[in-house]
Each structure stands twice: as structure tokens, then as C-alpha cells.
Specification:
Elements: H1 2-5, H2 21-120, H3 124-130, H4 133-158, H5 166-174, H6 177-184, E1 196-197, E2 219-225, E3 232-239, E4 245-254, H7 259-273, H8 279-291, E5 299-302, E6 305-315, E7 321-331, E8 340-343, H9 355-368
Parallel strand pairs: 5-8
Antiparallel strand pairs: 1-2, 2-3, 3-4, 4-7, 5-6, 6-7
Helix pairs in contact: 5-7, 7-8
Length: about 375
Amino acid sequence: MAKNKNKGKKPAQNNKPEEKKPEVKVEEKAAEEISEEASDDIAEETEEAAEEAVEKAVEETAEISEESSEENEESEEETEDEFEDEYEDDEADNEKKETVPDIRRGAVDEKDARANEKFRKLTFIEKCKKDPYIPVCLILAFLAIVVAAIYFMLPNAMTPNMGITLQEFQTRYNNGEVNKSLINSGADIGFRTPPYVNIKEEPSILGEKEVVSAGSAYVDYFKGPLKYYSIGGIEGATRKRDGNLAYVRVFIQYDDSAFNTIWLYASNTISALYPDLSMYQAMDIAMKAMNSFDGDARYYVKGDFAFRLVAVKKPVDGGGELVYIVVDVAPRSAIGANQIREDLDLSASGTGATEASSETTIASSAATT
């Protein structure tokens, strides 16, 4: 209002300043009040604007999220549709691929069947001309059969066997009835397991009288003394393939008083070969062979075995010689018909020794052995 009253009036020239401080204060106060009211109004308007902006932002955000979710659902549906379409296309392609080879395979099979039928109607020579693998395979098969025959049959043909091992023969011999009777009388004509030897260093005791032999490629040779006595020993050969005996020989030193001793060794050897025989039957056979001993080098045969008695001389150190009686045993299949002296299965066993005389001979031999 003060301004309206002074409007149009020229201010007085006065060096002294006018004192309008209260008016200024009033004006300043009014201005402050107006500014406060304006600031309050502005604050209220700002708050309202801010609330409206927030609400609008929230609404817009919700709308955007709804739109984006709708868009995502639409995109997912489109992706699934596209995947299903692609899967259906792949299945259709696979069906086509499977169908086409089946048709071709059928045609190929039919063609092969016709070719095979035509090949079967050819002669053997024509087949060999068309397919060179046929004669090659036949030759290889023939060679395989020959090699197998050589491997399995040649050792049997070259070295027939007795069907028992050295260990089995040793057990039968040491447990023979004759040896058991001697053990009861204080003697023992058994033998320990002999060592294997080099045949060139330890040749057979038979020397030139050896009939049945075997090559070192097929057998291993053994030789050793009797268990307790140096008057004799045992030698032979076992097959490398199965360990069966190719031959075996029990030898005993001979002198004028050794007849009964030789008889007991021969009887116990026969008992080991034929465990079904009684001691007296074995002694009868041995006695028959000794009574018929006349230098004949042929064999007696019984069952699967052949045996003979052979006298040999061996030089000794310092001069002179010793005589040995060898009980030479071999497989029956290893000798020829011209080497058989007598078949004991076909001939009678004879009267033989009685039980009393046999027991007397065993007792006297045990006393002198």
C-alpha cells in the first residue's frame, strides 16, 4: 500500500536518508510469509506430483510386466510350436530314410539270393575258379589236420605207453605182496623215486640187446639204485606228453646163489604189472619164465604188457665183469608179432609153486639178501 500512495510523486531531494526500516521489515516479513506459503504450496504440490508420478510409474511398470509376460508366453508358445513342427519334420524325414533303405535292401537281398543260387549250381571246379579262397581254405584245413595228427598221433606211434606213470608203478611195486612178505621177514626190495638222467651219459643196461627204445624228443630217461641194496636198480623212460611209462626195467646182479633173489624180484615186478593177480600167481608166472630161460630174447605177453628176462654182462673197474638179469617190461603195442614168445592169456599157467614152497623161498631169500 505504501507503494501505491507514493506512486506518481517525485521523491524529495534530501541528503538525509529516509527511515523506512519498519516498512522494509514488514515487506520482508510479508515476503517471508508469502515464500513460506508458496514453499508449503510447492511442497504439497511436489508431494502430490511425486505421488502421482509414483502411482503412474507403478501402473506403467505393471502394464509393462503384463505386456512382457504376455510377450514371453506368446514367444514360448511360438517356440514350442516351432519345436513340435521341427520334431514332426525330423520324424517324417526319418520315416522316409528308413523306408527307402528297406526297399533297396529288399532288392539287394533278392539279387544276392539269385547270385547265390546260381553259384550253388556251379561245379566244384567252376566254384574254385570264381572264388580262389575255396581251394586256399581247403589246403589250410588239410594242413591243420596234418599238423594236429602229427602233434597228437606221432608221439603215440613213436612211443607207445604202458598206461601208468612211474609213480604209480613205484607204488604198486613197493606195496606188492612179495615185497610186503619180505618186509615182514626183515628185507625190502623196493626202490626210491629214481632221478632223471642224460641217456648219453647213462646208457641203458641192455646195451645192444635193447629192443624197445624211445627218442629223447618224446621221453625223459630215469635211472637209480634199489632202496637198500646195491645189487640192482631200475631204469626206464616216461613220455613228455603225459608222464606215462614208455618202458621200465628192473635189474639184479646174478651169481650161483642168487636164483631165489631173482625170482622174488621178477615175481614182485609181475605183481606190480598185474595187481589183480595174487602173490602166488605172480610167482608162478615168474618161475615159468625162469625155468624156460635159455637166452631167447622174445617177450611173454599178458594183457597190455610184454616182459622178458635178459642176461647182460657189464665190465667193472679193475677188470672182470658182472652178470645182471634184467626184467624188461614194455607196452604190448610196442612189439611185433615176431617178437612174442608166448601169450600167457591163451596158455595154461601150469602147476606152479605151492604156497608152502613160496613162503619157504621168501624166508630163505630174506635171510641171504
